[in-house]
Design brief:
The protein has helices at residues 11-22, 34-44, 60-68, 91-94, 118-133; strands spanning 3-7, 27-31, 48-51, 85-89, 110-113. By secondary structure, it is α/β, with parallel strands linked by helices. It has one domain: Rossmann fold (3-Layer(aba) Sandwich), CATH 3.40.50.
C-alpha cells in the first residue's frame, strides 16, 4: 500500500486530507511539525510527503525541504531525497509574498494553496506518485 506522510500542525487539515486519501486506499501517517516529520521520514519511508510551510516557525516547511533535498553526499537524508513533496499551504493568503517550486530555494514538486478540492488533491498525488515510479 502506498504510504503518504502529512506534515501539518492544523488538525482539521490533517483530518480532511487523511479522510480523502484513505478513502482512496492510501495509507496515511502524520507529523505535527518538521522535526517530527523528518524523524518519521527516516522510520516510515513514505512514498509521498504532503507538507505545510508555517508550523512551529513561519518557514519550517521551507527549512525541511532544504534539509531533505540537500545535495550534501553525507546528509542523513540522502536516501530520502527523491521522495515527492506536495507543499500544501495557506502562506499566500497570510502574507503578500509569493512562492513556487525552484530547484535551489524551494525544492518541492508541487506547490498548492489551501484549501484544495479533494479531487484536485487526488489528481496531484497520483501524478506525483506516477512520476516517482517512472524509470
Amino acid at each position: 500500500m502506498t504510504k503518504i506522510l502529512i506534515i501539518d500542525d492544523d488538525p482539521d487539515i490533517v483530518t480532511s486530507t487523511r479522510l480523502c486519501l484513505e478513502a482512496n486506499d492510501y495509507e496515511v501517517i502524520d507529523a505535527k511539525n518538521g522535526t517530527e516529520g523528518l524523524e518519521m521520514i527516516k522510520t516510515e519511508h513514505p512514498d509521498l510527503i504532503i507538507l505545510d510551510v508555517m508550523m512551529d516557525t513561519t518557514t519550517e516547511g521551507f527549512q525541511l525541504t532544504l534539509q531533505l533535498r540537500s545535495p550534501d553526499p553525507s546528509s542523513e537524508f540522502k536516501p530520502y531525497r527523491n521522495i515527492p513533496i506536495l507543499m500544501l499551504t495557506s502562506i499566500h493568503s497570510t502574507t503578500s509574498l509569493r512562492f513556487g517550486p525552484t530547484e535551489d530555494y524551494l525544492p518541492v514538486d508541487e506547490f498548492v494553496d489551501k484549501p484544495i478540492d479533494p479531487d484536485d488533491l487526488l489528481q496531484k498525488v497520483e501524478k506525483l506518485l506516477k512520476r516517482d515510479s517512472s524509470p
